[in-house]
Amino acid sequence: MFFSSNYIRPRWWGLLLLAGLFPLLSGCSDESLVASETTSDTFTRYVALGNSITAGFQSNGITAATQEDSYAVLLADRMNTRFEIPRLRSPGCPPPVDNIILSGLFGGGSSSCALRSSPIPTTLNNVAVPGAKVIDALNNQAEMSSPNQLTTFILGGRTQVEAATQVSPTFASVWLGNNDALGAALTGNTDLLTPTSAFESQITRVVDSLSQAGAERGVLIGVANPLYVPNLSPGRAYAAAEAQINQFGTSIANQSDNLTWGGYTVAASCSNAGARTRIPLNYGIGTLFVQALQGASVTLDCAPDAAPDPLLTPAEQNTIDARVQSYNTILSELASAQGWAYVDVNPALAALYTANANDGDPSNDLVPKFPNPPNLQNPAESPPTFGQYFSEDGVHPSSPTHRVVAHLVIQRLNAQYDDVSMEQVSIPDEIDSLLSSVQN
Amino acid sequence: MWCFPFQFPNSTLTGRAPLPTTALVILPLLFSLPAAGQGFSVYEQGTCTMAQAGAAVASPCGDGSSIFFNPAGLLETEGVTVSGGATAIAAQGSFTDDYTGTETELQNDPILVPHLYASWRSSPDLAFGLGVYVPYGLETVWPTDWDGAFEGYENGLQSVYVQPTVAYQVTDRIRIGAGPILGHSQVTLNQRIDASAQAVPSDQVPEGTTFGNLGIPFHTAFADAGLEGDAFGFGGHVGVMVDITDRIRFGSRFLSPITFTYEGDADFSPVPTGLQLPANNPLASSSVSLDFVLESAFVNGPLVEQSIETRLTMPAQLVAGVAMDVTDRLVLQADYQWTGWSSFDTIPLDFERDALDQERNEDYENTSAVRVGGSYDLTEAFTLRGGYLFNQAAAPDRTVTPLLPEADRHHVTAGLGWQVLDQVTVNVSYQYLGQNDRRGRVRGPRPGEEDPSIEDLNSGLYSFHAHLIGTTLTIFL
Hints:
The complex is a heterodimer. By secondary structure, chain A is an alpha/beta fold. Chain A has helices at about 5-10, 10-20, 50-55, 65-70, 70-80, 100-105, 135-140, 150-155, 160-165, 180-185, 195-210, 235-240, 240-255, 280-295, 315-340, 345-355, 400-415, 430-440; strands spanning about 45-50, 170-175, 215-220, 230-235, 265, 280, 300, 340-345. Chain A has two domains: about 40-230 and about 315-440, Rossmann fold, CATH 3.40.50; about 230-300, no CATH class. In chain A, the strands form three sheets. Chain A has a four-stranded parallel β-sheet with strand order 1-2-3-8, with helices on both faces. Chain A has a two-stranded antiparallel sheet with strand order 4-6. A two-stranded parallel ribbon of chain A has the order 5-7. The longest helix of chain A has 25 residues, at about 315-340. Chain A is globular, with a radius of gyration of 28 Å. In chain B, the strands form two sheets. In chain B, strands 2-4-5-6-7-8-9-14-15-18-19-20-21-23 form a 14-stranded antiparallel barrel. In chain B, strand 14 and strand 15 form a beta hairpin. Chains A and B meet through helix 2 and helix 8 of A and strand 11, strand 19, strand 20, strand 21 and strand 23 of B.
């Protein structure tokens, strides 16, 4: 018998000693994961898809400072979640302009594109690309896609959806579709509107892809109606500013031997009862104004049948308005079907656009209907061309308006999800009261 | 000009090439193995000793393995002793990313690590032996499609030491042993290369502009790099054993550091990125494939097959311990081990194309290990063994990488020896290696990232544990 009890019994203490050592193996000084402490598990990984607004484009340009002011960054901050942006080097890509009129007339703006900053982020959460239509989020190579330098600078050969899904998002915000309508508004060509059926199939694919990648929750932001941007000034505003335009033109011509002011006439068609034609800045204070500076006597004619292409006639406005409503119906229904939140920014934009607009005093409009002329003697003292709520290009929201968008989204998310309680973003009192009147 | 911040792995080593002159002896040892000791050291050099947690410097097992555990211990053998066996090692590990929560598992297959010793005690005062052992070795295999693959996804190092040994009884109580070492080491590395970190080969962008500055995402694999080299080195190993009393013995050994200057080849092959830069991109007005832009790197750029040299120092080991015959049947031992890992401070990479040259900081730290073990003769034929050891990690917080994601380790061991015949002994043993979870990284500093903090670099948690089962057959002739 090999195992004699005499050999074994008295020596159990040795085995007990060894057994006592086993707890040490569990690791007495383990380190741990450093998980983000978001305000809700919903926001563990947040991605933002969109176009120029979401990317942080302002004043015809984008730079790190404007990127940081994007509503998406504000949302991420309130979520307390990691949010990497495709930060651009100074002065930007392209650099934002100080004054849109001066840069348009005298140059000073730049189309050059600074590079991405180093080090590049290890992940990318804001994948929005200026100029992107919905189709661009899915395919940068499609016939209807509109890639630009920033498409590569931000996505590096991926689509927005590809870049977003690589983060395995738990939450996504999608504000796409603005460029599916904006191009038509700024060129007066409604053929550029994305067909409703294409819009619906494309945005559905975007949302489905995000959901399949793990984004069980999200927010769809409705297409902003381009008729609320001050870049498209009413003909009436030009008529009211006719003398101011000529005075401004004369002042510029007097500063240069090469310029002769030929005169700028605003036809009665712009101010007749029922006149609604809108004039893009590039035409009214661009093409036409430059012709006048070169000695030609020019006339702004707003008659729908005589309006040149860039002008937006009432019929074209109606078409665009109806198309945007169609887009937003699709977005609202899609969000509802997915259990996502939906935010329509247009009531707020409309309130902002019309605030103080009917008191006969254009100087107190929160959104100027006619661009504020720059200070030629001291350009640095020039007033904001389109007020404080739109950037210099008159299309893209300014930083304060990004706060308004973030405010609206947070308000909606807190209402949509019982377990979400985000701290609000503060907004100016005048906007707060405007929003209250809209929501009441 | 291409600037190629190629990243060589920190610290993993393994080998597969045969040694011409000692192939017969070494061939069984040329398997890849994960490190089961501290750093990338391997201490499982014999089943008998493994069963008592490697505590053996004052009283090695009489199976010839004392060539490694204490050269002076050869005098514990009788006549001619030949031992052969193997240790099966099943290692499991993973990395869990902080941000995504994704867990990536180590893909090492279970392996067998053979061992073989021969000794001859020519007289009561003199013994000779030849040992072939692998004191440093490691292999780590990770998936190719995770972030850590840019640090290394299939990497190995193996250092095989051939040590002729002589032991001599100096006095009744003092024995010494020593032997020169011929070492052969082979290192292999496979890793992905990140396109975003490469300089753009164009005069139209400022010098130093990387593809990442053009928007190419971080960790975009565009190439696979394979490096392989080997080297010979020379060192020595000495040991002493002192009988303090009839029941208490002291032992110590010193294994010298050995520096290997590796010469080998670097091969590069393209990995499709699948990225198509759309029209109006910074490089061309029309759409262009990123792979097309990068392919020149493999033709007339830096990524052509070329020679490479590097240098690593296998650290010194100093071990001291005591053994006590508690009873006629029970022997307890305790060892302290110091390993000079600080010699593993940098990895200089000298490519044939100088533009690729770099020096990689590892900054390993000297480590301590404590081993306690014992043996108990259950019967004349059976001996029960057990032990526990703790060892510190050599890698500092900054260089815990996929190549060697180590942490402080605790091990428990148990084993049984069976004297089958007068001339035959069989040993079996089991060892559990438990490693503390440790935070680590899957990337190095990015271009433009100056001196990143450890908190910035370490982005997840490494876990690791292993089961080891050994068996040895010893024949006394």
